[in-house]
Amino acid sequence: MSKRKGTHNEHRSKQLLEAEGYACTRAAGSLGMFDIVGIGPRNIVLVQCKTNRWPGRAEVEAIRRFQAPKNARKLLHRWNDRASVPDVRRVE
Protein backbone atom coordinates (compact mmCIF):
# COMPACT_ATOMS: atom_id res chain seq x y z
CA MET A 1 0.00 0.00 0.00
CA SER A 2 1.34 3.40 -0.87
CA LYS A 3 1.74 6.20 1.65
CA ARG A 4 -0.36 8.35 -0.68
CA LYS A 5 -3.34 5.98 -0.43
CA GLY A 6 -3.11 6.01 3.39
CA THR A 7 -2.92 9.80 3.47
CA HIS A 8 -5.93 10.04 1.16
CA ASN A 9 -7.96 7.79 3.45
CA GLU A 10 -6.95 9.79 6.53
CA HIS A 11 -8.32 12.90 4.81
CA ARG A 12 -11.53 11.02 4.00
CA SER A 13 -11.96 10.03 7.66
CA LYS A 14 -11.30 13.61 8.71
CA GLN A 15 -13.98 14.88 6.30
CA LEU A 16 -16.52 12.37 7.65
CA LEU A 17 -15.87 13.46 11.21
CA GLU A 18 -16.05 17.14 10.29
CA ALA A 19 -19.43 16.49 8.63
CA GLU A 20 -20.57 15.09 12.00
CA GLY A 21 -19.56 18.34 13.72
CA TYR A 22 -16.05 17.54 14.97
CA ALA A 23 -13.18 20.01 14.72
CA CYS A 24 -10.36 17.76 13.53
CA THR A 25 -6.60 17.75 13.35
CA ARG A 26 -4.71 15.22 11.30
CA ALA A 27 -1.74 14.12 13.37
CA ALA A 28 -0.39 11.39 11.10
CA GLY A 29 2.94 13.08 10.42
CA SER A 30 3.90 12.72 14.06
CA LEU A 31 3.91 8.91 13.68
CA GLY A 32 1.89 8.77 16.88
CA MET A 33 -0.77 6.30 17.90
CA PHE A 34 -3.68 8.23 16.36
CA ASP A 35 -3.97 9.75 12.90
CA ILE A 36 -6.89 12.07 13.66
CA VAL A 37 -8.01 13.89 16.79
CA GLY A 38 -11.55 15.25 16.65
CA ILE A 39 -13.16 17.48 19.26
CA GLY A 40 -16.93 17.66 19.34
CA PRO A 41 -19.42 19.41 21.59
CA ARG A 42 -19.84 16.32 23.82
CA ASN A 43 -16.82 14.12 23.24
CA ILE A 44 -13.43 13.57 21.67
CA VAL A 45 -12.58 10.98 19.01
CA LEU A 46 -9.12 9.49 18.54
CA VAL A 47 -8.86 7.68 15.22
CA GLN A 48 -6.31 5.26 13.80
CA CYS A 49 -6.81 4.79 10.04
CA LYS A 50 -5.79 1.71 8.07
CA THR A 51 -6.20 0.71 4.44
CA ASN A 52 -7.38 -2.82 3.54
CA ARG A 53 -6.45 -4.29 6.93
CA TRP A 54 -7.06 -3.94 10.63
CA PRO A 55 -4.12 -3.07 12.88
CA GLY A 56 -2.21 -5.93 14.48
CA ARG A 57 -2.87 -7.26 17.95
CA ALA A 58 0.02 -5.34 19.56
CA GLU A 59 -1.12 -2.04 18.01
CA VAL A 60 -4.72 -2.57 19.17
CA GLU A 61 -3.50 -3.42 22.67
CA ALA A 62 -1.41 -0.22 22.78
CA ILE A 63 -4.49 1.78 21.75
CA ARG A 64 -6.57 -0.01 24.39
CA ARG A 65 -4.02 0.84 27.12
CA PHE A 66 -3.75 4.50 26.09
CA GLN A 67 -5.08 6.66 28.94
CA ALA A 68 -7.64 8.93 27.25
CA PRO A 69 -10.13 11.26 28.94
CA LYS A 70 -13.41 9.60 29.96
CA ASN A 71 -15.30 11.40 27.18
CA ALA A 72 -12.92 10.15 24.46
CA ARG A 73 -13.73 7.36 22.01
CA LYS A 74 -10.85 5.43 20.47
CA LEU A 75 -11.79 4.33 16.96
CA LEU A 76 -10.27 2.27 14.16
CA HIS A 77 -11.22 3.22 10.60
CA ARG A 78 -10.43 0.57 7.99
CA TRP A 79 -10.82 1.77 4.40
CA ASN A 80 -11.18 -1.00 1.85
CA ASP A 81 -10.40 -0.21 -1.77
CA ARG A 82 -13.36 1.35 -3.57
CA ALA A 83 -15.35 1.74 -0.32
CA SER A 84 -17.30 4.96 0.20
CA VAL A 85 -17.20 4.71 4.01
CA PRO A 86 -14.81 2.98 6.39
CA ASP A 87 -15.48 -0.04 8.56
CA VAL A 88 -15.38 1.33 12.09
CA ARG A 89 -14.48 -0.43 15.33
CA ARG A 90 -14.39 1.09 18.78
CA VAL A 91 -11.48 0.12 21.04
CA GLU A 92 -12.36 -0.06 24.73
Topology:
Blueprint: H1 3-19, E1 23-26, E2 36-39, E3 44-51, H2 57-65, E4 72-79, E5 87-91
Parallel strand pairs: 3-4
Antiparallel strand pairs: 1-2, 2-3, 4-5
Give me some keywords for this one.
92 residues; alpha+beta; Trna Endonuclease, Chain: A, domain 1; five-stranded mixed sheet
Which structural category fits the helices and strands? alpha+beta
Rounded mean pLDDT is 93
Helix content: 25-40%
**Whole-number tally of structural domains:** 1
Q: Biggest β-sheet, characterized?
A: 5 strands, mixed
Descriptive report:
With 92 residues, the chain is an alpha+beta fold. The chain has helices spanning 3-19, 57-65; strands spanning 23-26, 36-39, 44-51, 72-79, 87-91. A hairpin with a 7-residue loop joins strand 4 (72-79) and strand 5 (87-91).
Q: What's a concise summary of this model?
A:
The chain has a single domain, classed as Trna Endonuclease, Chain: A, domain 1 (3-Layer(aba) Sandwich). The protein is built from two helices and five strands; from the N terminus they run αβββαββ.
